[in-house]
Amino acid sequence: MNPDSPCPCGTGKPLAACCGPFIEGSETPETAEALMRSRYTAYTLSRGDYLRATWHPTTRRKDLDLDENVKWFGLEIVRTQGGGPNDKEGIVEFVARYKIGGRAHRMQEASRFVCKAGRWFYVNGEAITPSSEQ
After folding, report:
1. What are the counts of helices (DSSP H) followed by strands (DSSP E) for the chain?
2. Which end is more exposed in the chain, N or C (fewer Cβ atoms within 10 Å of the end residue's Cβ)?
3. Which residues contact residue 32 at a Cβ distance below 8 angstroms, ignoring those fewer than 6 apart?
4. What does pTM read for this prediction?
5. Domains and CATH numbers, the chain
6. Which three-class secondary structure state does DSSP give residue 36?
7. d(C-alpha 47, C-alpha 82), whole Å
8. Over the stretch 15-53, which tens digit does the pLDDT of each residue have?
């Protein structure tokens, strides 16, 4: 992906001025939301190395299967709770849209993050089923 292209996370900023420096390791996200956005971008770029590095060691999966058939096309942050520069924990609820084989899907999750030694980590997430699908 071109660094001047819009960042997949949806901020409208170029990748090089948004999530790119996090994924390349030259900067560290200061908030749980910034980490969430950069992890979404890493999924769109199939950057399993970044996903593993930002996953808390106590919950990190040994294997990470990034399906090449998944085409990510949208991230919406629904809400945040905590997760600021001076917080130790945070929750980011989001909706991610994607396609598999041309069929549209959506995933909604409340993700939990912790900050250890100045670095944010993804811990786990709780899937949220929209009320129309319950």
Report:
1. 3, 4
2. C
3. 80, 82, 83, 84, 87, 90, 91, 92, 111, 113, 115, 120
4. 0.93
5. 15-133 (3.10.450.50)
6. helix
7. 27
8. 999 999 999 999 999 999 999 999 999 999 999 999 999
